[in-house]
Amino acid sequence: MILSLISKEYKENKTDSKSLLEKLLKLVLIVLTYSIFIALEVYIFLAVDKKLNEMKEGASFSFLILFLFITLIISSIISVGKARKSIFKEKDRMLLQTLPIVNDDIVIAKVFYIYTSLCATNFLLGAPLLITYGAINNYLMNYYIFSFMYPFIISLFGIGITMILLLPYNYIYNYLKDKIYL
Known about the structure:
The protein is mostly helical and 182 residues long. The protein contains 6 helices and no strands. The two termini are 35 Å apart.
């Protein structure tokens, strides 16, 4: 049942494009945007890393950790909006209440959907930095294996942060929605 719910979550959150050309154009635009962002991120990281190595030995690693922590916080905050849309869907709640589905299965499916989107975000933000840092310092293959495992591990912390922030965010969102018409 959980697999069916996960599949349903992906289908509902997938944006439907009308034509093949529109889908292809959207894919090219997304790939181009991410490529430019990753190139800019790595360029800035290399420039700051070079300056830090000139000032003090070992400062580069501290900067990497700080940068990865900031990306964790940013990706968690961004995923709060996606989590609110996924977990607090009124239509979804009305549909699933009529079916013989355990509430735990529904929550697990929605959290898994949020976790996979966090993994993708952390892979795009964190893995290029870790690979760049490993290439600069001539690290062994074990480091690169960790660099590819990093998004899956750190997303567990990110999902925790997201779930902690979700209820206050939803409360504030609903309050402002009534007052300001969001």
